[in-house]
Amino acid sequence: MQHKVVLLGSDMNTYYMARCYHEAYGENIDVIATEPIRFTQYSSIMNITYHPDLKTPEGFLKALNEYADANFSGEKILVIPCHDVYVRLLVENGEAISERFVFNSPNLKIVDEFLVKETFYKAFAKAGLKFAKTLYYDCKEKETEPIPSDMYYPLIIKPSNGIEYGKHHFAGQPKVFKATTPDNAVNFINKVKASGYEDTLIVQEFIPGDDSYLFDCVFYVNTKGHAELATFAQIGLQEHSPSAIGNCTVLMNGINQFGKTEETVKELKSFLENIGYNGFAEFDLKYDRRDGEFKVMEINPRQARSSYYIAALGHNLVKMLVEDVFEGAEHDFELLTDKVLLSMVPKSVLKKYVKNDDYRAEALRLWKQHKKVDPLKYKGEKSIKHKLYLILRAINYSKKYRINKNTI
User: Fold this and answer.
1) Strand-pair category, 5-8 with 29-33
2) What is the pLDDT of residue 393?
3) How far apart are CA 344 and CA 350, in angstroms?
4) What is the pLDDT of residues 53-65, one digit of tens each?
5) Which residues neighbour 245 within 8 Å (Cβ) at sequence distance 6 or greater?
6) Percent of the chain's residues with pLDDT above 70
7) How confident is residue 149, by pLDDT bands cut at 50, 70 and 90?
8) Which of 278, 311, 344, 382 is nearest to 21 (CA)?
9) What is the CA radius of gyration of the chain?
10) Count of alpha carbons within 13 Å of 362, Cβ hemisphere only?
11) FRET pair for 160, CA 20 to 30 Å: which of 220, 348, 364, 389?
C-alpha cells in the first residue's frame, strides 16, 4: 500500500530524502518549503509548494492544513522535517495537526534542549555526555567580561540559539568562529552583540586535531523508543567557507582510526533511550587525543545534511519511517559497519585538502571501487538544470577551498 508522505524544507537534506522516497517507491514526493534553494528548486523528483511564511507558527499551520485539505484521504500523512526550524514547529504544533498528520520526532522539551546550546550543555553534563570546557556569554549584558585566563586557545565561539543567530546578519558572519587570542574573542562577541542577537554565546576550548578527528554518529529510534540503527563515520573534510563551517563534505563509514566505536555508540544509545528520544538523531563528535575520549559538539534532532550514506548502506531513511509509523515494524539494534565513502566535493578537492594521509588513501580506494556516493547525484534525476547546477557547484568547490583556509 502506498502511504502519503510530505517533506518540510528545500535544502540538501530535503533533496536526499526526496531521493530516498523516489528510490523506494519510484514516485515524486510532495515538499512544502519557504523559498527556492538551488539544491531542490530544479529537481524533477519532487513536487514543491512554497509558503513564504512557513517558518512562522501561523504560516506553518496554514500551510499544513491547506495541504491536508487537498491530500488527506482517511489515513494520516507522514510529515518529515528536514531543518531544525521545521522540527521545532512540527513538535510545537503536533497536537493541532494530529488528526491528519503523523511524525516520529522527539518531544518539545528535548528539541529545545538540543537546539539551545546553553540548555543542552547544562542539561546533559551529568547524563554521561562528554564536552569540551565551556563558558557562556549573555549578549544582553552591556559589558563583555574578559575571557578567563585559565581557558586555552584557540577557542570556538558559537551561538547558543542558532535559529535566532540566523536572524541577525552582519558582515562576514560565520556559523562558528575560531578565536586565537583574548582580544580576538572579545571583539567577535561584541560584533555579535551589535548585530542585535540577544541570546547566549557558547565559548569552548578547541579540541586539537584536523577534520579527520571529527565523527558523525546517526541513530534511528523508533516510535516505541528503541534504537534500531546507528552509524559511526569518520569525517575527512568539512566546509571551509565561514557561513558553512561545521558541515561535512567527506566522510567514511566503517572507518575509525582511534578505536572505541562500540563503546561510544553504546553510551550514546543509552543516552537517547534514557531520555525518551524518538526519531533520527545526529551526534557531531570530535576525538580528543589528550584524554582519548569522544567529545559531543552538538546533537541534531533530525537526520543531517550528510545522512544519505545510511541509504547507501542499504537502509532507506524514508522507508524506515514509513515501516515504523504505518506498519509498526520493529528491528533489533544494528551498528552499520560496512565501508562507504560519502563525498560532496570533486576528487581533486579530496586529494588536495584531506590532511590525514591514511584516511585520504582509503577514501581514494573506496572511490576507485565505486563505493562512493554523493547525495545530490542521482541517476533518477532528469532535470538538466539540476545537473548543470551540480557541475557549477563542483567548480565552485575548488575555488572555495582555495580561498578559505580557516577551519575548525
Assistant:
1) parallel
2) 92
3) 9
4) 999 999 999 999 9
5) 174, 175, 176, 238, 239, 406, 407, 408
6) 98
7) confident
8) 311
9) 21
10) 21
11) 220
Residue 243 above 70 pLDDT? no
- CA atoms of 147 and 139, how far apart (whole Å): 14
Is there a contact between 335 and 277 (Cβ–Cβ < 8 Å)?
no
Strand-strand pairing, 227-230 and 214-221: antiparallel
DSSP string of 165-209, one letter each residue: HTTS--TT--SSEEE-SHHHHHHHHHHHHHTT--SEEEEEEPPPS
pLDDT, greater one: 145 or 253: 253
For the purposes of burial, counting CB atoms within 10 Å of the CB of 146, is it exposed (0-12), middle (13-18) or buried (19 or more)? exposed
Rounded to whole angstroms, the Cα distance separating 37 from 39 reads 6
Whether the pLDDT of residue 143 is over 90: the answer is no
Return d(Cα 292, Cα 140) in angstroms, integer.
37
Domain boundaries, the chain: 5-103, 133-205, 211-403
How far, in Å, CA of 87 to CA of 55, rounded?
11
Count CB neighbours of 69 within 10 A.
Answer: 9
- Residue 63 to residue 242: CA distance in whole angstroms: 33
Q: State the SS3 of 64-97.
A: HHHHHHHHCCCCCEEEEECCHHHHHHHHHCCCCC
Residue in the block written with cell 541517476: 379
Query: Chain centroid to CA 318: how far?
Result: 16
Residues 6 or more apart whose CB falls under 8 angstroms from that of 185 comprise 147, 155, 157, 179, 203
Q: Residue 369: pLDDT band by 50, 70, 90 thresholds?
A: very high
Separation of CA 4 from chain center: 25
What is the fold of 211-403?
D-amino Acid Aminotransferase; Chain A, domain 1 (3.30.470)
CATH topology for the 133-205 domain: Dna Ligase; domain 1 (3.30.1490)
Distances (CA, A) of 294 to 128, 133, 217: 12, 13, 11
Global confidence as pTM: 0.91
Look at residue 231 and give its three-state secondary structure: coil
- Class (C level, CATH) for 5-103: alpha beta
Separation of alpha carbons 109 and 88, rounded Å: 10
Residue 357 reports pLDDT greater than 80: yes
Selection from 221, 249, 223 nearest residue 235 by Cα: 249
